[in-house]
Amino acid sequence: MNISLHQTLAGTLWPEKSTNTVLRNAILAIAGSLLLWLSAKVHIPLGPVPFSMQTFVVLGLGAAFGWRLAIATLVLYMVEGAAGLPVFAETPQKGIGLIYMAGTTGGYLAGFVVASGVVGWLAQKGADKNAFKMFAAMLLGSAVIYLCGVTWLSTFIGLEKAIQFGVLPFIYGDILKAALAAALFPAVWSFLKKN
Q1: How far apart are CA 135 and CA 30, in angstroms?
Q2: Cα-based torsion angle of the residue sequence 83, 85, 88, 89 in order, rounded to the nearest 10 degrees
Q3: Cβ-count burial of 172 within 10 angstroms (0-12 exposed, 13-18 middle, 19+ buried)?
Q4: What is the pTM of this model?
Q5: Where are the domains of the chain?
Q6: What are the E-state strand segments in the chain?
Q7: Which residues contact 93 (CB under 8 A, 6 or more apart)?
Q8: Does domain 9-190 have CATH number 1.10.1760.20?
Q9: What is the C-alpha separation between 195 and 190, in angstroms, rounded?
């Protein structure tokens, strides 16, 4: 089965052939992990799982980088967190590594990796060039994060409370983030086509 993938936004802005591919991808992955780190620190505590722009960045990296580089970036971010760097939401300055990752937000962190790949793959199929498709891709990515997160969180507080605290408070925010991405990504592609 032949599946053709479109050029990513990152690949258009910084073509792989313009430089050493490994160096280019390493720089993008490090920059992406730093953006994830920053987005995790801007949050509103709403219970066992904090609200932040991090899911927008996770899914946006998927759309901008494509599935392979997005997954690599998220894995790098997880390795940074596991090593004790304070990259996650609500971690202290010195970080707490694997202990934090095994806590209530662990499923959401795992979901980040999967969701970035899903949105990245959909973007490489052209979803990021169409507002409706990008909106749907972002909602699907959010659903993947919810599924992984709630599955894990329910082992701590039960399924009903996991949905109550780990999904419901975030639905409207994630719809707004999806709408933002649906406006932003096609607009960037449109701008690039004109220039």
Answers
A1: 27
A2: 140
A3: exposed
A4: 0.90
A5: 9-190
A6: 43-44, 51-52
A7: 86
A8: yes
A9: 9
Q: Enter the tokens of residue 68.
A: 């392979």
Which pLDDT tens digit goes with each residue over 24-43? 999 999 999 999 999 988 87
User: Dihedrals φ, ψ of 51, to 5°?
Assistant: -95, 130
- DSSP string computed for 52-110: ESHHHHHHHHHHHH-HHHHHHHHHHHHHHHHTT-S-STT--TT--HHHHHTSTTHHHHH
**Given CA atoms 5, 9, 10, 11 in this order, what sign does their dihedral have?**
positive
User: Could you tell me the two tokens for 174?
Assistant: 């994630």
- Model pLDDT for residues 95-140, shown as the tens digit of each residue: 688 888 999 989 999 999 999 999 999 999 999 999 999 999 999 9
Please give the Cα distance from 110 to 149 (Å, whole number): 8
State how far the Cα of 71 lies from the Cα of 33, in Å rounded to an integer. Answer: 11
